Amino acid sequence: MDNKELTYLNTLAVSCLATGMIDEAQPAFELINNSAPLQDAGPLGLASVELARGNYDKAVEILKQCADENRVNADKARKLLMHALVATNRLNEAEELRDSLTQLDAANDEQEYLVQTHKFFGTGDPGLIGR
User: Fold this and answer.
1) What's the CA gap between 28 and 34, in Å, rounded?
2) Each residue's pLDDT tens digit, 50-98
């Protein structure tokens, strides 16, 4: 699959997901995942499908496996992983993820970093990340 086909298929899959056509999005993301294993669109899309279905533990499993294999963009994976962990009430793991993000950027002002992290993760509650 060339880049143009990959981009088209990913756009189609994301559009399906965004319009609630979850069952239609999954095969497209699976095809991307199998055809372009070094691209992060497949695993991130599959995790997004699981999040949309409410299968948060499965989304966490996909993201952790891909992170272990260095297959995904770290920032995108962290965003999805944080949502999945919070949604499954795995707050200790979410806190560990937040702490690791803070340690990665320890040279910067911590409060400003937390504000930026809140914006990045798009949570409705900045206090959740700033605990």
Assistant:
1) 10
2) 988 988 888 888 887 776 666 666 667 777 777 778 877 888 888 887 7
Instruction: Tell me the backbone φ, ψ of residue 21, rounded to 5 degrees.
Output: -90, 65
**Taking a C-beta distance cutoff of 8 angstroms, is the pair 43, 72 a contact?**
yes
Contact call for residues 40 and 76 (beta carbons, < 8 A): yes
The first and second tokens of residue 57, run together, are 């533990």
Q: Which residues contact 54 (CB under 8 A, 6 or more apart)?
A: none
43 C-beta neighbours (distance < 10 Å), count? 24
- For the entire predicted model, the pTM comes to 0.65
Q: Are the CB atoms for 13 and 28 separated by under 8 Å?
A: yes
